[in-house]
């Protein structure tokens, strides 16, 4: 039985050619399929949020800015929302409004002095630390700089 | 190990006998001209594989068709290769189908009992041309647009039914988004279904009846 099934020369050539063609086709095919997944957004420039005077002392203030994102052959303009907080008017903290649980948008509830995510009841304090609910880590922060009383964040 | 799995499967599927019937069948003395059909089959498989890959990025609307094709060609890794294989494979397939048909004509291989093989072959030729015609529009560039204007206009010159045929092909008076969408639908659904079915019948008949020998001088 084993003797009969031994690969002869013709069988080997057939399988070798077939294997080479399949390999030659499947490697480009895999690269082709996963290619866009491997592309990362290039580092963004500093994005201007607005004047520092808009930030109330002690209260996270919502800023909105537009960023351009390239997706395939389409350039999208996306809105980026950022909560900025300061205690002394000099040092600023910029937090993303994207919940770290499953990326819904959080909002500041002034009466309770908390960020709240409506999707799964995630709660964060004014510094973005998790107080309750499923979020695994604090709200993400952006690098901030101030120039001529204008707030800038490192976009991403 | 592989032998044991193979035996297990063979007991249930009987695939070895099927494989022997297909690949180890008796054939008369033949020459390289008899490989034109297999070469065409190989190209058809190439068109199916590369075609499926192209649909991953291609979008058949006037807004996106051209840009998505440019994206495939210039941005996606190996996109130029996949599109190139589909593009050149298409032309090569038309040429090979033609040569295959000429060989059958010159060898008179279409005669009894192979009339049905010939008939399905003729339908496969028409399907191949249909693929070429519908696929030509999809890149949505100037050449595609005007070639389809001309092609549908030619169909429109047919007596009596011409105008209706033209309107049905274009999906209206003018070449539009409707035309692009229906050419795409025909190219990726209707024609492939017909192609696979007819290739199945065509190959079944080739295996079942066997191929004709090369005619001798004076026959």
Structure description:
The complex is a heterodimer of chains A (156) and B (219). By secondary structure, chain A is an alpha+beta fold. Chain A is 19% helix and 38% strand. Chain A has one helix and eleven strands, in the order H-E-E-E-E-E-E-E-E-E-E-E. In chain A, the strands form three sheets. A four-stranded antiparallel β-sheet of chain A has the order 2-3-4-9, with no helix packed on it. In chain A, strands 5-6-7-8 form a four-stranded antiparallel β-sheet, with no helix packed on it. In chain A, 17% of the residues are buried. The model of chain A has no long low-confidence stretch (mean pLDDT 89). By secondary structure, chain B is mainly alpha-helical. Chain B is built from nine helices and no strands. Chain B has a single domain, classed as Cytochrome Bc1 Complex, Chain C (Up-down Bundle), CATH 1.20.810.10. At the A-B interface, helix 1 of A face helix 4 and helix 5 of B.
């Amino acid at each position: 039985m084993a003797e009969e099934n031994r690969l002869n020369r013709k069988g080997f050539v057939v399988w070798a050619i077939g294997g080479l063609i399949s390999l030659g086709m499947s490697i480009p095919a895999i690269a082709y399929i996963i290619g866009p997944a491997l592309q990362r957004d290039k580092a963004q420039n500093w994005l201007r949020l607005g004047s520092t005077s808009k930030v109330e002392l002690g209260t996270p203030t919502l800023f909105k800015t537009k960023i351009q994102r390239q997706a395939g052959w389409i350039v999208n303009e996306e809105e980026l929302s950022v909560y900025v907080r300061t205690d002394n008017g000099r040092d600023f903290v910029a937090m993303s409004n994207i919940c770290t649980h499953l990326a819904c948008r959080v909002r500041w509830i002034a009466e309770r002095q908390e960020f709240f995510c409506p999707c799964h009841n995630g709660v964060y304090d004014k510094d973005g630390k998790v107080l309750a609910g499923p979020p695994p880590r604090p709200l993400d922060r952006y690098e901030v700089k101030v120039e001529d009383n204008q707030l800038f964040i490192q976009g991403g | 190990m592989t032998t044991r799995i193979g035996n297990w499967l063979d007991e249930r599927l009987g695939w070895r006998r099927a494989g022997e019937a297909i690949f180890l069948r008796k054939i008369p003395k033949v020459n390289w001209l008899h490989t034109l059909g297999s070469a065409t089959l190989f190209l058809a498989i190439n068109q199916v594989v590369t075609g499926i890959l192209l649909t991953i990025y291609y979008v058949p609307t006037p807004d996106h068709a051209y840009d998505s094709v440019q994206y495939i060609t210039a941005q996606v890794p190996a996109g130029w290769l996949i599109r190139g294989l589909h593009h050149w494979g298409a032309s090569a397939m038309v040429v090979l189908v033609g040569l295959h048909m000429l060989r059958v004509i010159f060898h008179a291989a279409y005669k009894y009992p192979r009339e049905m093989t010939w008939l399905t072959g003729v339908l496969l030729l028409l399907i191949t041309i249909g693929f070429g015609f519908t696929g030509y529009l999809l890149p949505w560039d100037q050449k595609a647009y005007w070639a389809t204007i001309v092609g549908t206009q030619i169909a429109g010159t047919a007596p009596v039914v011409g105008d209706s045929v033209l309107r049905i092909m274009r999906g209206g008076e003018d070449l539009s988004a409707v035309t692009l969408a229906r050419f795409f639908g025909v190219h990726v659904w209707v024609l492939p279904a017909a192609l696979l079915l007819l290739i199945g019948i065509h190959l079944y008949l080739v295996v079942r009846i066997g191929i004709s020998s090369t005619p001798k001088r004076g026959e």
